[in-house]
Amino acid sequence: MIDLVIDGTRALAPRIAEFTLRAASGGLLPTFSAGAHVEVETAAGWRAYSLLDVPLSPWMYRIAVELREEGTGGSFWMHRRSIGERLVAREPRSDFPLPDRTGACLLIAGGIGIAPILCMARVLARYGDRFDLHYVGVDSASMAYRSEVQALGGHVSIDGGDPGRGMALDTLLADPTPDRRLLACGPARLIDIVLGTARRMGWSQRNVQHQSFASVHAIDVPPAAGRSV
Both ends of the chain: CA-CA distance in Å? Predict the structure, then answer.
């Protein structure tokens, strides 16, 4: 277990808050890799939140929490936390790892699914690796980290709540070469469409990884293992 203290908070969108966390002892935090998450103990039980970036400093974690009315209370509890309050978390783990840095990565994120995808994009950019980043949301106001995505050369699109409208997936997924990897995280409806298009376009199961809102990432859900196509 890790004892954490909230070192900072900021609003990213009307229903999304970012939390900066440090060790309550003032010491170093356990390391993690891109795509990892921490499980935080809330009043509603343990909740899993993706870590936003592999830190240049081992003193800090950052997570983003979306307030979800249909959830079971963890996000409401987190949104009431303030700077200086303490949290208990389990050590980071990853069910959605960034593949070994070989070939190019196609990164697709929907909604708050941008959290692990942005972490991956930052790592790839840091090492000069090839990647394409695509981020879709219901509307621009609800899209956390939109400017960060654009600064990395990513593409932002709006789907108005219809996952079939936001991105030209037939075009994005039209080149399933053996060294190209697809990583997607977002609402279950979007992920279903992405995976269906990938199958139709002939992507190998080995080259596709995903997480949906039914599995671990930065929303109010119980932790569960990631899946592949």
Answer: 32
25 occurs within a structural domain: yes
What does the pLDDT look like over 92-125, one tens digit per residue?
Answer: 998 899 987 667 999 999 999 999 999 999 999 9
Q: Which residues pair with 9 in a beta bridge?
A: 19
What average pLDDT score do residues 34-38 get? 93
> Count of CB atoms within 10 A of residue 64's CB?
24
Same domain flag for 9 and 41 = yes
| Tokens read off for 137 | 């949301």
Whether residues 78 and 120 fall in one domain: no
Q: What would the pLDDT profile of 47-91 be if each residue is shown by its tens digit? A: 999 999 886 678 899 999 999 876 668 999 999 999 999 999 999
Count of structural domains within the chain: 2
Please state, in angstroms and rounded to a whole number, the distance separating the CA atoms of residues 217 and 1.
Answer: 19
DSSP letter at 225 equals -
Structure tokens at 168: 């030209």
CA 98 to chain centre: 12
Q: Are residues 119 and 188 in the same domain?
A: yes
Parent domain of 180: 104-216
Residue with tokens 């899993």: 48
**Residue at a domain's end among 89, 113, 140:** 89
